[in-house]
Amino acid sequence: MELRSPIRLYWDITPLPCPLPDYERICSELSDSRALTLHITDLGTGLSAETLDVVARLSRSPLFLFLTASHAALAEALPLKHSGVKKVYADIRAPEELADFGSAGINGVSFRTSRSNFLMIPDIIAGCIDNGIAELQLPMERLVSGDDPLCLSVGEREALAGKIAAVRFAGKLTVTANDPFLWRVVHPGTPFPDGVCQAGNTMLAIAPNGDVYPCPAMPAILGNLQVTAYRDIVASRIKKELRAGILSRPAVCADCFAADDCRGGCRGRGLFAQGTLDASDPGCGISTGAPSEGMPDTLPL
Ligand code: SF4
């Protein structure tokens, strides 16, 4: 179903741009949006004055606020749970950091997965359980900010799935994976909750300079909040055209047995890799090569 207005917003406050956007105006527009949640990310070594300003402005808004902060900034982030932030997540880079969080009062941790660190996921999951951490977020890559797309082969995903299954985290830890292929690795047999790519439909992402994207992983600028009102970006022709492109399946996926479920995977990665929405997700590992692995007969992990 297509929504008239997104319900999930992501706002990366840092790295701080120059010039700074008009936080007062943006907060006012977000407060009046029909969004339900706003995920704020500030990964500086201390919380920026701008993040504190945004939280203060939105603390009485209808938005459900989440904040992801660096490990070093937790002492500043956690008190915000008394002033409007519903959940605080610690951004972590390695399993060893988890020992610090047992009684810290965080709601969970966030682990930005890449090709260089994906093998840590089983130890991160085990560490969360050992330290009484309730939630693990595996957030979307920030392709709009220079992250590399996470592209694992089918074999790598199967090996990772086996190691994660061995940890037996069900009922002990909630793991959220926003990447459709990573979701299947973590939750094999459970359909990806979002179904078709939700970029620009249920979600929008705001970059530090006010640029608005359909998703943190989709490098297609819909507008900038410095010059265009939020409601006008939501109702824009460019956003409607982008959604139409997402809803039409990439031609390369036409004969894929998994297409009804997968629908082209993460369309932001396809756009990033080939510059067109008619490209499949390079994280698929089927449409993009790995010929020695052939075409499996079950939905690729
Ligand atoms: S080819 Fe890959 S991306 Fe396309 S539908 Fe099949 S599994 Fe998904």
Can you put this structure into words, describing what you see?
The protein is α/β, with parallel strands linked by helices. Helices cover 28% and strands 16% of the residues. It has ten helices and ten strands. A ten-stranded mixed β-sheet has the order 7-6-5-4-3-2-1-8-9-10. Helix 4 packs parallel to helix 5. The longest helix has 14 residues, at 154-167. Residues 288-298 have low confidence and may be disordered. Iron/sulfur cluster (SF4) is lined by residues 253, 256, 258-259, 262, 264-265, 280-281, 284, 286-287, 300. Iron/sulfur cluster binds next to helix 9.
What is the element layout, followed by pairings?
Layout: E1 8-12, H1 23-32, E2 37-42, H2 49-58, E3 64-70, H3 74-77, E4 85-92, E5 108-111, H4 121-130, E6 135-138, H5 154-167, E7 174-177, H6 180-186, E8 203-206, E9 211-213, E10 223-224, H7 230-234, H8 237-247, H9 259-262, H10 267-274
Parallel strand pairs: 1-2, 1-8, 2-3, 3-4, 4-5, 5-6, 6-7
Antiparallel strand pairs: 8-9, 9-10
The protein binds iron/sulfur cluster.
Iron/sulfur cluster (SF4) is lined by residues 253, 256, 258-259, 262, 264-265, 280-281, 284, 286-287, 300.
